[in-house]
């Protein structure tokens, strides 16, 4: 028996930062394509090769707030632990993200294992719609801050704010 999702959600904002724009420049935003459709567009300009086995690591941390107040956010146990970028690409990215951005970007798309190196180039996202097929069936109402942190030769972040509302 298939359980349907008990909530709906809206993307509120997406913020990106880089500790060194000479090595990695990033600017990804949410934009309104139509009255009901929000899309993600922008670029990630990687200016060095990322080799398998180097010190590049990634983690995703999730916070929840029932009110949206800054002082109300609490760390949730759902997260992707800090791991090598290649472990991440060969698991979560491949299983949950790659199919969602395959038709709207030139981000890494591969079969088998992620290629090494990840070549320096400008990766573009053009009106990407999040593929939510694998999202949980149940989430608490409120606001979520989802933080992706990348460590290594350059540190960069993606922070996504989402509001979740119960379906009636």
Main beta sheet: 5 strands, antiparallel
**Order of the strands making up the biggest sheet:** 1-8-7-4-5
With helices defined by DSSP (H or I, 4 residues minimum), what is the helix count? 1
Mean pLDDT: 93
- Rg over alpha carbons: 16 Å
End-to-end Cα distance, whole Å, is 20 Å
> In percent terms, what proportion of residues is strand?
over 45%
N-to-C series of helices and strands: EEEEEHEEE
Tell me what the structure shows.
It contains 1 helix and 8 strands; from the N terminus they run βββββαβββ. It is mostly beta strands. It has a single domain, classed as Distorted Sandwich (Ganglioside M2 Activator Protein, Chain: A). It has a 5-stranded antiparallel beta sheet, covered by helices on one side. Strands 2-3-6 form a 3-stranded antiparallel beta sheet, with no helix packed on it. A hairpin with a 5-residue loop joins strand 2 and strand 3 (38-46). The longest helix has 17 residues, at 85-101. The protein starts with 6 loop residues before the first strand and ends with a strand. 13% of the residues are buried. The mean pLDDT is 93.
């Amino acid at each position: 028996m298939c359980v349907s999702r008990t909530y709906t959600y809206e993307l509120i904002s997406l913020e990106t930062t880089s500790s060194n724009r000479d090595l990695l420049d990033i600017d990804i935003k949410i934009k309104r394509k139509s009255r009901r459709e929000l899309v993600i567009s922008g670029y990630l300009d990687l200016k060095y090769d990322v080799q398998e086995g180097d010190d590049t690591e990634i983690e995703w941390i999730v916070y929840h707030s029932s009110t949206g107040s800054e002082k109300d956010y609490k760390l949730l146990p759902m997260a992707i632990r800090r791991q090598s970028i290649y472990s991440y690409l060969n698991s979560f990215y491949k299983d949950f993200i790659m199919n969602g951005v395959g038709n709207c970007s030139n981000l890494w798309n591969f079969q088998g294992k992620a290629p090494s190196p990840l070549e320096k180039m400008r990766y573009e996202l053009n009106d990407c719609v999040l593929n939510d097929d694998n999202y949980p069936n149940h989430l608490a109402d409120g606001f979520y801050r989802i933080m992706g942190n990348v460590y290594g030769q350059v540190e960069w972040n993606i922070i996504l704010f989402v509001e979740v509302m119960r379906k009636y």
